[in-house]
């Protein structure tokens, strides 16, 4: 590990362009993102916290084509690429991990696995997805995916309830507490936590923390820190600083200045023993 000095990291939020999923695929996908090939390998790259599971299709510049699944990321990590990199990212909708991938989202948190190694129906398309162009992905999935999905009425109900819960807390200046959100949705707090754990991979509280820090990241440099803190729902600037350090690994000023970033070299995912009962291969931490 090295400590970066002097260059603010590039983040996916600033480089990715996204296309919303068509209505027919909305139960399972929210968008298709393109991270263009980054050729300046001297600038650190920040993998920021995110509360979604994604199917990532690597481009040829990044090595052999492969379809990977990136689970929710609870903390940021920083890398310095040794060659140009870019990818396509299919972002899964809340509650879609089980129907598509055949596992709980919680089993994928802070993990990378190959799509083909998962037991769900999406694994059947892994080899074909990597060969498709960006404009071919949604039409292909519209044609092939719906007839492969098998959901019970209870699963559909849970997925729709989770989507409503996520819409209720995302982007709010003052996020609802877990008891208040559970009351609004007419479920117990335990049910709500279980919904988030299995359908998203993080708790409701951690989802809110990630949502707020991502909003701050998109607005860095546009307003004073005190204004950013209030706009994102923090008590004050010191609360924002503490949360930023906890999730991003460095203080806000260090992040903006590119100083003291814990840089790790980019490396392929490492696969090892299976997770008991699922057949999923464990990967190295993201």
UniProtKB/TrEMBL annotation:
UniProt-listed PROSITE patterns: HTH_ARAC_FAMILY_2
Domain HTH araC/xylS-type: from-to ranges: 159-258
Gene Ontology molecular functions: DNA-binding transcription factor activity; sequence-specific DNA binding
Protein's UniProt keywords contain Transcription: yes
Domain of life: Bacteria
Alphabetical list of Pfam families matching this protein: HTH_18
SMART domains in the record: HTH_ARAC (SM00342)
Assigned keywords, A-Z: DNA-binding, Transcription, Transcription regulation
Identification of the protein by name: HTH araC/xylS-type domain-containing protein
Lineage: Bacteria, Bacillati, Actinomycetota, Actinomycetes, Mycobacteriales
């Amino acid at each position: 590990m090295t400590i970066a000095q002097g260059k603010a990291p590039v983040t996916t939020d600033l480089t990715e362009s996204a296309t919303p999923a068509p209505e027919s695929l909305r139960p399972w996908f929210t968008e298709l993102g393109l991270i263009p090939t980054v050729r300046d390998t001297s600038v650190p790259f920040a993998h920021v916290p995110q509360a979604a599971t994604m199917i990532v299709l690597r481009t040829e510049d990044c090595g052999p084509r492969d379809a990977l699944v990136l689970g929710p990321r609870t903390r940021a990590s920083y890398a310095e690429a040794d060659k140009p990199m870019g990818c396509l990212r299919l972002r899964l909708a809340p509650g879609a991990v089980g129907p598509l991938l055949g596992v709980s989202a919680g089993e994928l948190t802070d993990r990378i696995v190959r799509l083909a190694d998962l037991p769900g129906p999406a694994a059947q398309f892994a080899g074909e997805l990597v060969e498709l162009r960006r404009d071919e992905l949604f039409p292909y999935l519209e044609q092939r995916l719906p007839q492969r999905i098998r959901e019970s009425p209870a699963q559909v109900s849970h997925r729709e309830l989770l989507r409503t819960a996520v819409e209720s807390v995302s982007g709010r200046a003052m996020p609802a507490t877990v008891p208040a959100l559970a009351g609004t949705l007419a479920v117990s707090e335990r049910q709500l936590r279980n919904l988030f754990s299995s359908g998203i991979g993080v708790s409701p509280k951690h989802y809110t923390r990630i949502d707020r820090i991502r909003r701050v990241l998109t607005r860095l440099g546009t307003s004073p820190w005190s204004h950013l803190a209030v706009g994102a729902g923090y008590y004050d600037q010191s609360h924002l600083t503490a949360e930023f350090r906890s999730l991003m690994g460095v203080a806000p000023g260090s992040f903006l200045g590119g100083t003291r970033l814990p840089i790790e070299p980019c490396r392929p995912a490492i696969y090892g023993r299976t997770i008991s009962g699922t057949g999923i291969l464990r990967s190295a931490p993201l």
